[in-house]
Amino acid sequence: MKNEKTTIAIAGVIIGILAAGLVYFGNPVNMGFCIACFLRDTSGALGLHSAAAVQYIRPEIIGLVLGACILSLINREFKPRGGSAPVTRFILGIFVMIGCLMFLGCPFRMILRLAGGDLNALLGLVGFVLGILTGVFFLKRGYTLKRSYKMQHTEGALFPIVEIVLLVLLTAAPSFIRFSEEGAGPGALHAAVGISLAAGLIVGALAQKTRLCMVGGIRDVVLFGEWKLLLGFAAILASAFGANLILGAVTGTSYFNLGFAGQAVAHTDGLWNALGMALAGLGCVLLGGCPLRQLVLAGEGNTDSAVTVFGLMVGAAVAHNFGLASSAEGPTANGKIAVVIGIAAAAVIAFVNSSRKGEGK
């Protein structure tokens, strides 16, 4: 157990440093990694939405999936499974993304925003924990989406193959995808493809090895008093914070801005920051993992997680096509309505799939 915790802590330190480094090499501030933002950008690049400011196939996502896939094959942990309520998972994925885009970031970016001094992320963290606690309540009542089933290796390999196709499109056939124009917004800010892909491969492998999942970490603390997964995110926070301070001192450019106002790709509406992440936290508990964990599982051949990722991508398209996503000016009226609907829908899904006796597990 001690060795496992040490491994998780070291992985967290490496991931935090890589995230800060990606900002130095060109990614948006406090967005070295953001699963929600990067899936949103990829959706835009594929034409699923037309928001010109957020269109770019993010190599970090490709690397995450392939890094997890490669290590799982090496460790003989590539075990394709699926068939557990795929439509429900798809719908939950849509709502999780709507919650993340209300906050403007996934749980991973929430930690990186804190490491960059963005205090708005504290309100997001409060809501996130409350959403997870709500999900744990339903877990204790016997919530389950029923069992998954063993599938052929070819089925499990399809999602990693899709990521390889996206890499080919980005590098060899860019005329077929959309790019944010220089200066247009977050989609135009990115590190070089090779750097981003390499960082994604490393993070994907480390996340696969350690089972990193912030949702799972908080859930495990509540249910079992087990802190090891949260240790990884504490290490990410500490190392990214330290790297931001060092980069600022070396370059003369501020990578740490303490406060609420003037934060990059963020807004100051505390209530909706909290409610957006509450929806994300609840939805992720019902799905069995955060967006980072879903990508890693998809890389391991889990088709239920692949369906969830597709739901996240469609959720990004829905958010931008219908004016649900927040901006630096704050949340939209449509976005607020969608978050409330999402919380209600997630609660209904949790209720109808629960049994006090845990029937059907």
Helix percent reads 55-70%
Q: Which value, in Å, is the CA radius of gyration?
A: 19 Å
Quaternary organisation = single chain
**Count of DSSP helices?**
14
Overall number of strands? 2
Mean pLDDT across the residues is: 96
Unreliable sequence segments: none
Describe this structure in words.
- With 361 residues, the protein is mainly alpha-helical.
- 66% of the residues lie in helices and 1% in strands.
- It has 14 helices and 2 strands, in the order αααβαααβαααααααα.
- The protein has helices spanning 2-24, 35-45, 59-74, 86-103, 107-115, 120-140, 153-172, 193-210, 214-224, 228-251, 270-287, 291-299, 303-321, 333-352; strands spanning 81-82, 149-150.
- A two-stranded antiparallel ribbon has the order 1-2.
- It starts with a helix and ends in a 9-residue tail after the last helix.
- 55% of the residues are buried.
- The model has no long low-confidence stretch (mean pLDDT 96).
Brief descriptors of the model:
YedE-related selenium metabolism membrane protein; 361 residues; membrane; 14 helices; mainly alpha
Please give the structural blueprint:
Layout: H1 2-24, H2 35-45, H3 59-74, E1 81-82, H4 86-103, H5 107-115, H6 120-140, E2 149-150, H7 153-172, H8 193-210, H9 214-224, H10 228-251, H11 270-287, H12 291-299, H13 303-321, H14 333-352
